[in-house]
């Protein structure tokens, strides 16, 4: 079946689904495969649950005229998304970066939705499956699409740009993330810059943080819109303070966010700048930023008993860990940090964990607890720190009643799932 024909069928469906547990009536089900599952085996179940069509790539599972057999389900999903994006022809903003992608995407969405009907990446569905699903979630009433793109190796951003064909793009930063897949920091810069390469080649607009010299150099020949607090900025946004929440100044308005840490200033500034570019009124931008509350373990503020918790356990890499610790040091009162391993660092894992260990015990934090095999192998010479090789050892051996009357930072990679700590902390 040609893509155009499949697209005609797709337009008659409610939405795209890849998980039979979430099937809704009149969905179109794509039978994707993974290391431990074969979606083809669920095709009949999808139909029985109300799917209007199922797309499969193993003919023996065709039990209905509503089953569409293709050569490769994943590639068909991607091509359908690309076709649908061209069919709608709405402006699309793409963003990537080492840190802050999802928060920035949520902020941009909050700002632009003050004036436009937006469709944005849900959660962090930002890979070779998530990007097509985001595009296929857009409808004829979508004014602007906002597509987050993640990558852990070279050529991935280029591939995602080929599917989404964005009109605008923004890179949050270049940091020490996914070093194993990219082969080092230079690989990270090269990989993320594939977005700039695509936009520049196609004469599209890039949004650039004017305070980031790497970004400025990478986009020197691009069509760009610069924000910052310097002479080359198209829009000026000034950092005021982060005690603990970020406050910034824009067009004589003070915007008081509910995001902690000065490292969140650039995320906020990008959203303000993009709102400015798309002519969202200043007061509406202020309202959107001030009403945005972080969730999903990203810089959440939680109060439990005598403990003020900064839960930043969604993910971690050396760059974000470094920024979080330096910001945490500025917090008043007694401070405790619980830090979990950082993943996907490859041959740099030992060096980077030792570097973060040295930083954490050298700055003004009263107590530091390290969890994970990598941190456990780090050398620690301090009586204010403890280390555990895994979460279960920490859970069974540590006396949680000791954590009280303190501000607590919890940060680690997604695989560490340190949000589990919340239920273990005393509530009095």
CATH superfamily of the largest domain: Mur-like, catalytic domain
Rounded mean pLDDT score: 93
Q: Which range best describes the helical content: under 10%, 10-25%, 25-40%, 40-55%, 55-70% or over 70%?
A: 25-40%
Shape: globular
Low confidence ranges = none
What's the CATH architecture of the largest domain? 3-Layer(aba) Sandwich
Number of domains: 3
As laid out across the biggest beta sheet, the strand order is 6-7-5-8-9-10-11-12-13
Provide an overview of this structure.
With 428 residues, this protein is an alpha/beta fold. The chain has three domains: 3-72, 3-Layer(aba) Sandwich (Udp-n-acetylmuramoylalanyl-d-glutamate--2,6- Diaminopimelate Ligase, Chain: A, domain 1); 90-234 and 265-283, 3-Layer(aba) Sandwich (UDP-N-acetylmuramoyl-L-alanine:D-glutamate ligase), CATH 3.40.1190; 300-424, Mur ligase, C-terminal domain (Protein-Tyrosine Phosphatase, Chain A, Alpha-Beta Complex). It has helices spanning 3-10, 43-48, 73-88, 101-112, 130-136, 156-164, 179-182, 185-192, 194-201, 213-218, 265-277, 282-291, 318-329, 349-362, 373-376, 391-397, and strands at residues 16-17, 28-30, 53-56, 67-69, 92-96, 118-120, 144-148, 168-171, 205-209, 223-228, 235-242, 245-250, 253-260, 300-304, 307-312, 335-340, 367-371, 385-388, 406-411. The protein has a nine-stranded mixed sheet with strand order 6-7-5-8-9-10-11-12-13, with helices on both faces. Helix 5 links the parallel strand 6 and strand 7. The termini are far apart. The mean pLDDT is 93.
């Amino acid at each position: 079946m040609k893509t155009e024909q499949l697209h005609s069928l797709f337009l008659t469906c409610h939405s795209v689904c890849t998980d039979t547990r979430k099937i809704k009536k009149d969905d179109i089900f794509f039978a994707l495969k993974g290391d431990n599952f074969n979606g083809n085996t669920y095709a009949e179940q999808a139909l029985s649950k109300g799917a209007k069509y199922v797309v499969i790539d193993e003919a023996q599972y065709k039990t209905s005229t509503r089953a569409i057999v293709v050569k490769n389900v994943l590639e068909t999903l991607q091509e359908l998304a690309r076709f649908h994006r061209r069919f709608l022809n709405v402006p699309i903003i793409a963003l990537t970066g080492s840190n802050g992608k999802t928060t920035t995407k949520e902020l941009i969405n909050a700002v632009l939705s003050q004036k436009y009907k937006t469709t944005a990446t849900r959660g962090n569905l930002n890979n070779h499956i998530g990007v097509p699903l985001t595009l296929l979630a857009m409808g004829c009433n979508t004014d602007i699409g906002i597509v987050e793109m993640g990558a852990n190796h070279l050529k991935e951003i280029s591939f995602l740009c080929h599917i989404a064909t964005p009109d605008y793009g923004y890179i949050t930063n270049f940091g020490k993330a996914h070093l194993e897949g990219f082969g080092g920091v230079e690989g990270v810069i090269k990989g993320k810059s594939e977005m700039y390469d695509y936009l520049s080649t196609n004469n599209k607009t890039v949004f650039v943080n004017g305070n980031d010299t790497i970004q400025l150099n990478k986009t020197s020949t691009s069509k760009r819109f610069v924000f910052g607090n310097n002479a080359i900025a198209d829009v000026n946004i000034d950092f005021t303070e982060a005690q603990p929440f970020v406050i910034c100044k824009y067009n004589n308005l003070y915007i008081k966010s509910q995001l902690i840490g000065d490292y969140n200033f650039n995320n906020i500034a990008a959203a303000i700048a993009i709102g400015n570019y798309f002519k969202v009124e200043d007061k509406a931008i202020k309202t959107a930023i001030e009403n945005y509350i972080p969730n999903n373990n990203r810089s959440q503020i939680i109060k439990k008993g005598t403990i003020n918790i900064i839960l930043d356990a969604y993910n971690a890499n050396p760059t974000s860990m470094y920024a979080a610790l330096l910001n945490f040091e500025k917090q008043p009162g007694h401070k405790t940090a619980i830090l979990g391993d950082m993943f996907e660092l490859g041959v740099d894992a030992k060096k980077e964990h030792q570097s973060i260990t040295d930083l954490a015990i050298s700055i003004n934090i009263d107590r530091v607890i390290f969890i994970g095999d990598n941190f456990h192998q780090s050398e620690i010479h301090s009586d204010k720190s403890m280390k555990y090789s895994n979460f279960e050892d920490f859970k069974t051996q540590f006396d949680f009643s000791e954590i009280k009357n303190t501000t607590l930072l919890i940060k680690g990679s997604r695989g560490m799932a340190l949000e589990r700590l919340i239920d273990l902390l005393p509530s009095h």
